Amino acid sequence: MQSTATMPTSEAVPTPASPDKRYFDLMAYITSNTVAGEIMAVENYSEMVPLMPSTDAKIDTVKQAFEEAKHIRMLSSLGKRLDYEVKDRIVEPQWLAIRKHFSAAVAKRDLAACLIIQDIMTETMAIVLYRMLQRDTDPVTRETAAAILKDEELHLQMGIDRLAGMLEADREAVHDALIWAHHRVMPELFSMVSTSCHSLCDELQVDCGGIGLDSIRTDIEALRVEALDTYMESLDRVGFDVRVTTPLIASMSSYGAVPSADLRLRATDDGAACGATDAARCC
Ligand SMILES: [Fe+2]
Ligand SMILES: [Fe+2]
């Protein structure tokens, strides 16, 4: 978007000839893929309920699933208001891969891995996404993203609080769960910080090569740095050991992600932690 004055509004009705078509194609792509993430979240939270240790925690988890369902409705309504198509099912295969890993964690009754995958990893990426959707987008998108962001920040905080308690009880098991989940889920999540897709653009009938984040004044590299920084911050807030998290963060460079100022990576130089290559073997 060039300026606020040219931003589409809720009254805008884009047409194929509209100068805003590229913007709306991008929004159709982002919103559809975000709905897919929300659908995955509904399923993850629902599947996690029986693992929760108390009735209060089960009720809170059901509430989280309900809030993700509400986000699906809000995003669908956003597409209707701005007149672009929003898919109401998962199209991109990464979400299905993450679901599969989550189900594997449920099958082994690894609640820490479930919380790490959904409350920490997925919610952190959701927060980065909903923050991005408030930068240089239209007023309706900004309003929707701001409302959803509040819920996602609470979900992240709930996960941080739960995991901090579990970490106190059994540091080794929770760190093992982090390593297990990181190598399976983070590459899938990061592969979606991209404007290329498997088949979503085809399904939406938008030009896969033509959509670009530059239409909302951001770029993939900046977004990847922000995503990795925010992920690192979330891990720190839980209280994970930097000797474990440092090689995990370093391993993300093989997926094209490098944090903006990761002083901890220097720890790998003096042997305090294993490096990126070793991290790949840690799982
Ligand atoms: Fe959500
Ligand atoms: Fe959430």
TrEMBL record:
CDD domains: Ferritin_like (cd00657)
Pfam families: Ald_deCOase (PF11266)
GO molecular function, one term: aldehyde oxygenase (deformylating) activity
N-terminal signal peptide: none
Record-linked InterPro entries: Ald_deCOase, Ferritin-like, Ferritin-like_SF
Name recorded for this polypeptide: Long-chain fatty aldehyde decarbonylase
